[in-house]
Amino acid sequence: MGKTTLLQHVYEDEVTKEFDLKIWVCVSNNFDAKKVIADMLECLKKERPRLDTLVALQGGLKEELMSKKFLLVLDDIWVKDEEKDKSKWEDVLAPLASGSFGSKILVSTRTDSVALMFAEVIQKEVEKVKLEGLDEDECLQLLNSHAFAGVENPPDDIRAIAGKIVKKLLGSPLAAKVIGGVLKNNLDERHWRTVLESNLLDQNSINSILRLSYIVLPNHLQNCFAFCSMFPEDHEFDKDDLVRMWIALGFIQPSQGTIMEDIGGRYFDVLVKKNLFDKVKYGRYKMHDLIHESASKFFAHKCGKLVGDEESSLNQIFETIRHLSVQTTNLDILRKIEKFKHLRSLFLFYEDSNQDLGSALTKIFEASRCLRLLYIRAYHALEMIPEEIRYLKHLRYLKTRVESFYATRLPSSLSNLYHLLYIIYDHKLILTCGETDVFLPSDINNLFNLRYLELPGNFNFVICGIGKLKSLQKLNKFVLRDESGYRIGELENMNDLCNLGIYCLEKIKDAEEACSAKLCEKRRLTNLTLCWSTIDSGNIDLDENVLDNLQPPKCLRNLRIEKYRGARSAKWMNNVNSIFNLETIRVDDCLEWETLPPFGQLRFLKSLKLYNMPKVKWLESKFNGNDKYRAFPLLEVLHITRLEALEDWFEAGVAAEDGCLFPCLTDLYLYNCPKLKELPSLPSELKTLKILRTGWTTLNFRSNSNPIPLQLLDVFQCPNITSLHLADEIARLAALRYLTIRDCPNLISLGEMQTSNNCHLMLSDLEISDPSVLLMEPLRSIASLKKLSIWDNDKLVSFPNEAEQWFLNVRSSLSMLRLQHLKSLESLPSSLESLSSLQSLHIYDVPMLRELPNLPPSLNHLYTWKCHPEFKERYRVDGGSDRHKIAHIPHISI
């Protein structure tokens, strides 16, 4: 009853900010210890670990969690064999002991036995929260919120039917959502009565209620949804990739003038609106486990999956099946797939290192000649996809993913599969040009129907004569060469491109050749990168004329330009009407560019990033006599780095209307802009401000906002800055949580506190290089700090007495102290012993430190590295003279 939803709310709540790390893992009914640990590491590091053994995975997780306070959510745990599962969970939870005191684990499950098992594994009592169903009024409110979304005054007779329907939903929030989706956008009373009178609502079963949600789907949507039931429980669906699969299988009904991918996207959006999928992150979705369980049973006659190594499991799958997913280490199971004569799609997850996988694939290819979709994932090296793939004449979609450092070669016969629409070679390795010649058929450009080609490292550019692939939609890296088949004219007829990156633009011989790309005619182009390969001075006039003739269509959303050697903007960039749809702009390493286009007038621009443009003097110049306007109306992110000549935000004579400079800006990074003037006032929505090597002497916090929403402030390596006026605006800086002040040697003031003001900064993290900053208000009286880092100070020998006293202010809040790169420091504050909340002490590269003061009983982790040799001798584990003074600390690394 809403277990996952409740956990999601907790996971995203403000209260979880106290945790250093947050981990979310969906466990489900196919529990495997190695997979769960790998999922944890993937959640932490944002990439799948390349570790095979349980011990290696445990070691990796232990290292990631070391001394960190974490929140771990384990969603949807089942128990099949209690003794076996208990042993597996002991393996999973063992590395968690390296985490810091105060870490928490939240578990959701359908069974009480899981709670009992966890209590035994962690040898602690667990707190159980049992969720009951919604009461009838709450359930009706939820049903109405979905069924009547966008309807202001629903008819009374329809409302009355809703009241009767809700009595049959067993108080289930999921049932209320999906039945609300069934009723949505249809106020026909007959439709509502059909749902009310359906016998599926009268069976007192959640599964029956959920079944109604997809039985009423029109055929084209039901086919799409049924196919999804074949995927593993808790599978994350990539919307774009799923739509490609639907197209390959013929599920999408074509409509003249609309591309198939857009139609498929609308299909998926309908299923989301009907609450059959939930969005989990950008572009990725999940099916609720109960919906998945129900749909898997209902569509078992055409969609099936086999997980495990028991050959008898094959007998439980209908021979008429159309779509099959197999996850196994048993090659004999793969060899027997030939019995399914009607397969249209096949997903193979082979988890063993047996090199005979190729022969099993050969047998499948010979027997399953009606396949339109093939997905192969091997967890060990697969040298080559067998040439027998030539039998799959109807193949539209091929995806391979091999967890190996060795490339899997694609067979030459692949070039004869003319119906292929999508080839996805999902591999992390980076290949050299020579290697791509080996693994990719030389005549792959014969696949003239190909719409999408994904190769490792965007190596599409190695294809000679890629212009023959006129239906291709994505070409992220097209590298120009001085040879036929690699000139920019290859792009002339590739008018379906949505994403395009053109590199080595210095290879273009003249402006007329640039015209041959005909970028302006590519009416679907939304992402464009234009890149020269060197910043060395070349023919400036030629580069300027080339860029003039690479004008994109007006539909462009994202533009990136690198190493352009011209001194002026392209003509089309100075015409706002030509680029008015741009949402993101990034310009890198354009050393001669002097005057920026009128980016401030782009009404949809959300992100502007400028790097290494040393001749630009103004962010916004005067164009078309327009000297006063709403500047950067929707800009949210602004990064400016290494614009050494940048003097002011506007050219003389240009001004933004009062209060209208960056009205939506939330993130501002200013790095290496020594001449830039300070902002007249902080943007009203600014949350993050990072300043590095500016020439500012002061930083004021003038703002039209009250309170000021600033959450993070970094001031780093600003030698001219003498004052930061934090104290003056302390009452309005209630949101500030993260503050860094490092390498600002002339800083003497953080502002003046008003005597009548009892406000305090509510910082949680503070990074400094000079401890004397702690004695300036408002830091002097801070009492909420959780983490303090002191870095990069070669002069600090010891902490002044007042700083020693300062630590007593934070004794009940400070949980982590980090001291790093302090070359002269000889002693730590004796007041550390009084820090009753201190859990972690990290000391790195403090070569003059010989001993520690008395440390508090609360300390859980002590890590030191590159201290004085005497320090290591004093605290060594085998007989160090002062080892007994730190023996109470559970986790020590000297």
Architecture overview:
Keywords: Leucine-rich repeat, Plant defense, Repeat. Residues 1-149 form the NB-ARC domain. Residues 488-613 form the R13L1/DRL21-like LRR repeat region domain. The longest helix has 14 residues, at 260-273. Helix 8 (173-183) packs parallel to helix 10 and helix 10 crosses helix 14. This protein is 23% helix and 20% strand. By secondary structure, it is α/β, with parallel strands linked by helices. The strands form seven sheets. It has a 17-stranded parallel sheet. Helix 17 (433-439) links the parallel strand 12 (422-426) and strand 13 (452-454).
Mass-distribution shape = globular
> Cα-atom Rg, whole angstroms?
31 Å
Number of E-type strands:
36
What is the number of helices? 21
Low-confidence stretches: none
CATH architecture label of the domain at 300-463 = Alpha-Beta Horseshoe
CATH topology of the domain at 300-463, anyone?
Leucine-rich repeat, LRR (right-handed beta-alpha superhelix)
Helix/strand-derived category reads alpha/beta
Mean pLDDT: 87
Helix content: 10-25%
What distance separates the N and C termini? 49 Å
